[in-house]
Design brief:
Elements (H helix, E strand, L loop, with lengths): L1 H16 L2 E4 L2 E4 L3 H13 L6 H4 L2 E5 L8 E4 L9 E5 H6 L2 H15 L35 H10 L1
Parallel strand pairs: 3-5
Antiparallel strand pairs: 1-2, 4-5
The structure holds zinc ion.
Length: about 160
C-alpha cells in the first residue's frame, strides 16, 4: 500500500514537470515552444532579433480566472524578475493553432516588443493590429489571408 502511494506521488510529479521545460535556460511550457519559435522566425524575416536567452520571457499555461482574459504578460517595472507570459489553459484547449498564435504573439507584443494596446480599425471595423485589446470597438479578424500583414504591422510598431 505504501509503495502504491509513493508510485502515485511520483507519477504526479512527473506529469507536472513534463509540462514545462527549459529552453535557453528559460522555463516554458512545452506546448508554447512552437509559438516562441514561429515568433522568432517571423521576427527574423522582418529584421528583428528575438533571442529568448537574453530577454528570458517565461511561458506558462494556467487557468486565468478573470472571464474573457485569454492571456497575460507580467513584467516587473524594475525588471528584477523575468517577464512571464500566461495563457489561459481552458481557452488554449479549444483554440485553433491560428488562435493560439494570435494570443501568443499579442502577449509577446507586450512582453518582448513592449507594446500597449491598439484598437484602431479599418473601414470594415476590423482591428488593424494584433495588439487590439479585445474589449474595444474593433472586430478581431486574424486569418490565413491577413496573418502576414498583421505580423508585419506588429513588428513595425
Ligand atoms: Zn493585451
Amino acid at each position: 500500500m505504501v509503495i502504491r502511494i509513493i508510485f502515485f506521488l511520483l507519477t504526479i510529479v512527473v506529469l507536472v514537470s513534463s509540462c514545462t521545460t527549459k529552453v535557453d535556460g528559460v522555463t516554458i511550457n512545452e506546448e508554447l515552444i512552437p509559438y516562441y519559435e514561429s515568433f522568432k522566425a517571423e521576427a527574423a524575416l522582418r529584421g528583428v532579433v528575438f533571442d529568448n536567452s537574453e530577454v528570458q520571457i517565461e511561458g506558462y499555461l494556467q487557468n486565468i480566472p478573470e472571464s474573457g482574459v485569454l492571456g497575460a504578460c507580467r513584467r516587473n517595472a524594475e525588471n528584477e524578475n523575468s517577464p512571464q507570459i500566461f495563457l489561459d489553459e481552458p481557452y488554449w484547449r479549444t483554440a485553433t493553432s491560428l488562435e493560439r498564435e494570435y494570443v501568443m504573439f499579442h502577449e509577446l507584443g507586450h512582453c518582448f516588443l513592449l507594446l500597449s494596446h491598439d484598437d484602431s480599425q479599418d473601414d470594415k471595423g476590423d482591428c488593424v493590429s494584433i495588439m487590439a485589446s479585445g474589449i474595444g470597438n474593433c472586430q478581431t479578424n486574424y486569418n490565413q489571408f491577413n496573418r502576414d500583414s498583421l505580423i508585419t504591422e506588429l513588428f513595425a510598431k
